[in-house]
Amino acid sequence: MQLQRSLELRTEGRGIYELTDRVSEVVRAAGVREGLCVVSCLHTSASLVVTECADPAVRTDLQAWLERIAPEGDASYTHTAEGPDDMPAHLRAAITSASETLIISAGELALGVWQGLYLMEHRAAPHSRRVLVHVQGDL
Amino acid sequence: MQLQRSLELRTEGRGIYELTDRVSEVVRAAGVREGLCVVSCLHTSASLVVTECADPAVRTDLQAWLERIAPEGDASYTHTAEGPDDMPAHLRAAITSASETLIISAGELALGVWQGLYLMEHRAAPHSRRVLVHVQGDL
Amino acid sequence: MQLQRSLELRTEGRGIYELTDRVSEVVRAAGVREGLCVVSCLHTSASLVVTECADPAVRTDLQAWLERIAPEGDASYTHTAEGPDDMPAHLRAAITSASETLIISAGELALGVWQGLYLMEHRAAPHSRRVLVHVQGDL
């Protein structure tokens, strides 16, 4: 059994946005009891990450750390035509994930108690982002 | 054909622990000849990585490098309630992998001759970690 | 329906090499309309990344940035027997991806308009690299 759904997420600019509930809904709609759920972010300046869901300070610190290791406006960037926030967006996307593969067990996403699935918007301005969800497995 | 197994790993604190053999056993138990094996780490301060299996110095250097780029006790962290090793654990987990997808060929994990699958324990203290293995494919 | 193909890529040393077309050919050969495509790089000093396909300067900057954060010949490396470019190759591979999972929709890889799939050669010298492609889904 397979089901694909396209989700749209409107971001308010740079930040980390929870997707767990929306992806869980697709899994439940598919009715798969045991299988896989692949989530794919169709952009190169936004990406996915599985990280702590309880304390939002974790996401704040993760965002701030990515800004330190891949800073905006670094003089060494040559890809600058789309603004100072574009090249670091590609770097931050490259070391997080374009897609995440989650296991489905007992009809639910098998995430640890502290795990959530998030879309990271790496551009400064608001964007509309598209995420594709593929669910497969046994009913 | 699908099979899921939950593995428990007791870590002795920060370090890199091999999982290849235990995951390979699940693949052989499933009897899948051609398919996929998804391994998921259900924690946000431990993660997975596929890296060199021959020289343990690679793992030592990888660990040391992650400690340099995401240092313990950085003054800019705001998520500090669980100790100075917790926020860097989330950062190191975010840029490695919550899950790894391996191809099964000829009844075995299709890994390169120098590749091994490892769990990274990012917390200083020993922990019990749970890893979920999902195997699917043709017998 | 499942199909596996092994691709060989001869690199000219450190750099980022496009794989999108060759992987797309495997998907079309399989005839899968809706499913998954897992691409696995069977090496520990080469890796995969999904990044911007339009402006090659993005790949140049990504390469240069990885060289800055995981520099060649760092005095702290202990795994040095295979040359000064080997340990940073493992580090750069560890924070990009050993495998990428792409969704197949309407018979094609579901990539965003700016996304391409690339192999990163992290060693200085030319190498022959093997990439395994697994396609599965409904015809």
Structure description:
The structure is a homotrimer of 139-residue chains. Chain A has one domain (2-138): YjbQ-like (Jelly Rolls), CATH 2.60.120. The first copy, chain A, starts with a strand and ends with a strand. In chain A, a hairpin with a 2-residue loop joins strand 5 (99-105) and strand 6. Chain A is an alpha+beta fold and 139 residues long. The longest helix of chain A is centred in the middle third of the chain and has 14 residues, at 56-69. In chain A, the strands form 2 sheets. In chain A, strands 1-8-3-5-6 form a 5-stranded antiparallel beta sheet, covered by helices on one side. In chain A, strands 2-7-4 form a 3-stranded antiparallel beta sheet. Chain A has helices at 20-30, 56-69, 86-95; strands spanning 2-10, 15-18, 34-41, 46-52, 99-105, 108-109, 115-121, 128-138. Chain A is elongated, with a radius of gyration of 16 Å.
